[in-house]
Amino acid sequence: MSTVTLQNISKNFKDVAALEDVSLQVQDGEFFVLLGPTGAGKTTTLRVIAGLEKQDAGDILFDDALVNDLPPADRDTAFVFQQYSLYPNMTVFENLAFPLQSPLRRLPKDDIQRRVTEAAEKLHISHLLDRKTGKLSGGEMQRVSIGRAIVREPRIYLMDEPLSNLDAKLREALRVELEHLQKVQHSTTLFVTHDQIEALTMADRIAVLDQGRILQIGTPHDIYDRPATTFVATLVGTPRINLLDAARDNGTLHIKDTDLRTETPADKTIPADLLVGIRPEDIRPAADGSFSGEITLIEPLGVETILHIRTGSVTLLSLVAGTLPFTLGANITFEIVRDRLHYFEPGGARL
After folding, report:
1. Alpha-carbon gap, residue 165 to 148, rounded angstroms
2. Which CATH superfamily is domain 4-229 in?
3. Cα-flanking dihedrals φ and ψ of residue 46, to 5°?
4. pLDDT at residue 1 tops 70
């Protein structure tokens, strides 16, 4: 496996900047996730690494060796696409073996048999080897698609939202399998997704992209608990973070249009106007709570319940464990975990 380094990569499509000065490094054996909305530049990043697109500026290095001028076939990457890209008239075995029969490889039959068998066992598709892929379910086809990459034993796996076409239950199951497989193989993997749950649960590190720029790189803990901007803060977390207009007032912070006040943090320089972020799990109903509001909506999710609490002219989201007997329209008192508040400049940067 390899380390992959991008240095100041830019890529334009006519007048549209797909990537702007993107720099990152994927460590050997790391599961690295690119997270961002549609159009952020995630797929373009993968295609530039694979050599399917040529960057307009910047360098790509594998193990500190420049690969800018290497054609895709010589970069030894394996690409797993959102669409399965299988040959429907071939069997599963033939689809898995196909990459190993290319002129660049032409492995002996025994090696092909071994690699295909091992990949099929890892992905639980051994019983499907003689079946035509056109007769498989979506989950089975995606496993075969991933298997085509595994048999290659490449320097790096590039995965472009490989789970997004699956239903929720199957997506969760395959996500767990894929993460386990990566850890067992210790494979260098760059995984693209717009799904923050996939990113937070699978990644060793995450790069958040928006409009071709990297906003933050960090561990899932960094991204969730220390978001660099309001965009990052709202991108991760379900339900969404409460992002509130606030003002500094004689040593206290006042959430505008409410009666909520809290002490100004001693370790930060707080401007006169700012944004305060509160994760829903940090708004906790309490019989003797310092704050109060009215329950305007209850969303029971089984293991958790989302409460919509109106205080002043602002509605807060609170996430509580279980399905407690809350009543719509009832008054409720609550506490806010003050040492877990997030402070942002009006422009969105973290204070």
Report:
1. 18
2. P-loop containing nucleotide triphosphate hydrolases (3.40.50.300)
3. -60, -45
4. no
